[in-house]
Amino acid sequence: MKRNKTEEDVYILAIESSCDETAAAVVKNGRQVLSNIISSQIDLHTLYGGVVPEIASRKHIERINQVIETALSDAGMTLEQITAVAVTYGPGLVGALLVGVAEAKAIAYAADKPLVGVHHIEGHISANFIEHPDLEPPFICLVVSGGHSHLVMVKNYGEFEILGRTRDDAAGEAFDKVARAVGLGYPGGPKIDKAAREGDKHAIRFPRAKVDGSDYDFSFSGLKSAVLNYLNHAQMTGEEVSVPDLAASFQYAVVDVLVTHTMEAARALGCGKVAIAGGVASNSELRSEMKKACKKAGLTFYYPSPVFCTDNAVMIGTAAYYEYINGVRSGWDLNAVPYLKLGER
Ligand code: KG4
Ligand code: ZN
Q: In 86-125, which positions are buried (b, 16+ CB within 10 angstroms) versus exposed (e)?
């Protein structure tokens, strides 16, 4: 979408608090990052092996004001100079979302600025716009995070068709569960990614699930069970498990399915552009295998830098910009919606 030169610049103050990162950013005209502050709670949740919702909400409350102040000062801006305030309002942990939503409403109301509620997955998809000025819809986006695995046709800004989704665990969830089972700890994705670099991805042949009735849906619970069975069997027979080989083989099984489904969809729909998004999009094997597959098929491949794959507020500011220029405004009754569907308002 081209901007008219006579239009004024749009500065969005964006807030993200849907899970365990408290984040704020200032984004100019959708694609220019003026600041990007992320306060991660990973250290706290590591103690419990996963995100504890109650702790997440409390930490968001403690940190959010400072994170927003720093985002504004890093951008060299005051609240008065901001055009609109954007916030993730779903999906996510309800208590965590509420902290961001309440804060954004208070700031926008006090400063007399418009409010734009943003869908978290739309944010992840929009992360691809940040570093690719040439990228415009339509394109296919594979969104793989801790809570979601979706194959999405991005028809236009803010306009999506879901081609496939997971029937059970999200891809990131599978990474986290397998990492816990082999004692690598939380968050599992980066730890499996690292361990896999020392392993052989062909060492163990794990199953690739095909879901009945859909070409593009995913299922990762069978793969997770296969890994657990492999570990149990090794324990019972006294065989030593090579964690790097297991990590590499499991990771390859996940990536193989993700790449195959994405390429099938691109071919069937005649779409020449493929993007990836979400925390798992920072996985090195997924990035390199998708790059290879796209090159072979003559498709252009887009992927965000790792810092824009995992949760951040820049992606929310980018998504909000396109919603804002399309006239979307949220009311003061904006609420957290933990199971918000993509494309719904
Ligand atoms: O997008 P995100 O930060 O939060 C959600 O919206 O869920 O994604 C977090 C997920 C976690 O499951 C984490 O293990 C996974 O992304 N992840 C990775 C990698 N980095 C983060 N999975 C595989 N490889 C990675 N390098
Ligand atoms: Zn996310």
A: bbbbbbbbbbbbbbbbbbbbebbeeeebbbbbbbbbbbbb
- The answer to whether 11-126+309-325 and 137-305 have equal CATH topology is yes
- The best mutation among 126, 145, 254, 339 to test binding of ligand 1, ranked by most ligand atoms within 8 Å of the C-beta, falls on 145
**Cis previous bond, 137, omega within 30:** no
pLDDT in the model for residue 29: 98
- For ligand 1, say whether the CB of 20 is within 6 Å of any of its atoms: no
Closest CA to 229 of 246, 212, 209: 246
Query: What is the pTM assigned to this prediction?
Result: 0.96
Distance CA(129)–CA(43), nearest Å, equals 30
Q: Which atom of ligand 1 is nearest to the CA of 147?
A: 7
Closest ligand by atom to 316 CA: 2
- For residue 156, the tally of other CB atoms under 10 A from its CB is 12
pLDDT digits (tens, 9 = 90+) for 44-83: 888 888 889 999 999 999 999 999 999 999 999 999 999 9
How far is CA 174 from its chain centroid?
Answer: 15
Ligand 1 pocket residue status of 230, Cβ below 6 Å: no
- Please count the other Cβ atoms lying within 10 Å of the Cβ belonging to residue 69: 13
Between the CA of 30 and the centroid of ligand 1 the distance, in Å, is: 24
Which residue has the least CA distance to atom 1 on ligand 1?
Answer: 279
**CATH, domain 137-305, list 3.40.640.10, 3.30.420.40, 3.30.200.20, 3.40.50.720:** 3.30.420.40
Rg (CA), the chain: 20
Domain spanning 11-126+309-325 has what CATH number?
A: 3.30.420.40
212 neighbors 206 (Cβ within 8 angstroms): no
